[in-house]
């Protein structure tokens, strides 16, 4: 579990599963994420996230607001099939919680975990090229444009933009 000024980053709980399923069924949220997910998929993802966190000490964990305990979404580190040598940072918030800096705050804490605790040499972020809100989070985090590529998501090609941050650049930005 990690704590930031406004957030708690923690494994999923049973009480998160309803709002987690609701945000994953919202077309505004899934616009660049492929097909909206059904309840069973969402429950499986939450269970897999918790198992990975238990095993490896990182994951795409739940985000809870400290002031009132509300579940906002999820963010964190994962290993995806397209770049298996790198850990990827990502974020997903319920629509009503966009515009408050929560994704950036959660992700900044996960970058610190990745560099300071896990000792990663670099962390990447991957998004659909038109997903400008996601690219804005990458920039706010101090990540730099790395390259563009056509990647496959469940066999379906999409235009991806990849940003990255090295441990050296992260350390320099904190001095
Ligand atoms: C991508 C996503 C997480 C970005 O959410 P977001 O709310 O735009 O990003 P942040 O949480 O960092 O918030 C930044 C915004 O909050 C504002 N803000 C308000 N208070 C703030 C504060 N205290 N600190 C920082 N920013 C603050 C910023 O000015 C910025 O506003 P702007 O969008 O008008 O420029 C969100 O759009 C989402 O969940 N999308 C669907 C899922 C998705 O596509 N995920 C990415 C897949 S690659």
Key words describing this protein structure:
single chain, 175 residues, Aminopeptidase, 8-stranded mixed sheet, 6 helices, 8 strands, binds coenzyme A
Question: Which helices and strands, and how do they pair?
Answer:
Blueprint (H helix, E strand, L loop, with lengths): L1 E2 L3 E4 L6 H8 L2 H4 L8 H18 L3 E6 L5 E8 L8 E7 L8 H16 L4 E7 L3 H9 L3 E10 L2 E11 H8 L1
Parallel strand pairs: 5-6
Antiparallel strand pairs: 1-2, 2-3, 3-4, 4-5, 6-8, 7-8
Major β-sheet annotation: 8 strands, mixed
Number of domains: 1
The CATH superfamily name is Gcn5-related N-acetyltransferase (GNAT)
Helix content: 25-40%
CATH class: Alpha Beta
Task: Give the total of beta strands.
Answer: 8
Element order, helices and strands?
A: EEHHHEEEHEHEEH
Global structural class:
alpha+beta
Q: Outline, from the CA principal axes?
A: globular
Unique ligands: coenzyme A
Report the portion of residues in β strands.
25-35%
- CATH fold category name: Aminopeptidase
Radius of gyration: 15 Å
Poorly predicted runs of 5 or more residues: none
């Amino acid at each position: 579990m990690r704590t930031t000024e406004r957030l708690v980053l923690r494994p999923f709980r049973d009480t998160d599963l309803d709002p987690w399923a609701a945000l994953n069924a919202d077309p505004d949220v899934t616009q660049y994420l492929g097909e909206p997910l059904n309840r069973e998929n969402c429950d499986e993802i939450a269970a897999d996230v918790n198992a990975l966190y238990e095993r490896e000490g990182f994951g795409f964990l739940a985000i809870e607001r400290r002031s009132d305990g509300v579940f906002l979404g999820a963010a964190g580190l994962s290993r995806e099939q397209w770049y298996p040598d790198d850990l990827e940072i990502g974020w997903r918030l319920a629509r009503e919680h966009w515009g408050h800096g929560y994704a950036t705050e959660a992700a900044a804490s996960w970058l610190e975990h990745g560099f300071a605790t896990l000792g990663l040499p670099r962390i990447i972020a991957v998004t659909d090229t038109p997903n400008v809100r996601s690219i804005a989070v990458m920039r706010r985090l101090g990540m730099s444009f790395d390259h563009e590529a056509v990647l496959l998501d469940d066999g379906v090609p999409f235009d991806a933009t990849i940003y990255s941050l090295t441990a050296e650049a992260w350390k320099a930005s904190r001095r």
